[in-house]
């Protein structure tokens, strides 16, 4: 007699496992802990959300930052123009002792103003590059 012949018509009997009733105090504690964890996760997810930034026009702080940045740009451009014009005027007036002809005075003033303008542009680019690198 072989084993597989004996087991041929048989079935496996598995009794049902009876789960013991849960302790109501334990269930209440687990629900409390789940609610606490869910609240902590919600706070973690939403901690960097600011309701004021959801305004389509922005906040007053954003407006202040934009005005300050625009003010700095306007002052920089004004400073550039004043520097170049002053270099031109000083060279034009100072070259009257060297050159007698007006064309030579204007040419020397344009050359000096161009050099000063390029130097000023170089300094501005390096400053902006340094500010952007710090971000």
TrEMBL record:
Q: Does the keyword Transmembrane apply?
A: yes
Q: Which keywords does this Swiss-Prot/TrEMBL entry list?
A: Endoplasmic reticulum, Membrane, Transmembrane, Transmembrane helix
A Pfam family that this protein carries is Vma12
Q: Where in the cell is it found?
A: Endoplasmic reticulum membrane
Q: How does it sit in the membrane?
A: Multi-pass membrane protein
What's a single GO CC term here?
Answer: vacuolar proton-transporting V-type ATPase complex
Membrane spanning segments where? 72-94, 106-125
Task: Output the Gene Ontology terms for molecular function.
Answer: oxysterol binding
InterPro entries tied to this protein: ATPase_Vma12
Query: Which GO BP terms apply?
Result: cellular response to increased oxygen levels; intracellular iron ion homeostasis; lysosomal lumen acidification; lysosomal protein catabolic process; vacuolar proton-transporting V-type ATPase complex assembly
Q: Which PANTHER family match?
A: TRANSMEMBRANE PROTEIN 199 (PTHR31394:SF1)
Protein name (record): Transmembrane protein 199
- Can you name the source organism? Pelodiscus sinensis
């Amino acid at each position: 007699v072989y084993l597989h012949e004996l087991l041929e018509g048989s079935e496996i009997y598995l009794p049902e496992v009876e789960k013991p009733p849960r302790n109501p105090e334990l269930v209440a504690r687990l629900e409390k802990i789940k609610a606490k964890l869910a609240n902590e996760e919600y706070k973690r997810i939403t901690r960097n959300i600011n309701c004021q930034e959801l305004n389509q026009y922005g906040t007053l702080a954003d407006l202040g930052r934009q005005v300050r940045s625009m003010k700095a740009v306007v002052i920089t451009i004004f400073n550039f123009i004043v520097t170049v014009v002053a270099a031109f005027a000083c060279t034009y007036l100072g070259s009257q002792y060297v050159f007698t002809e007006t064309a030579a005075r204007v040419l020397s003033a344009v050359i000096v103003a161009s050099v000063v303008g390029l130097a000023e542009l170089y300094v501005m680019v390096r400053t902006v590059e340094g500010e952007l690198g710090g971000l």
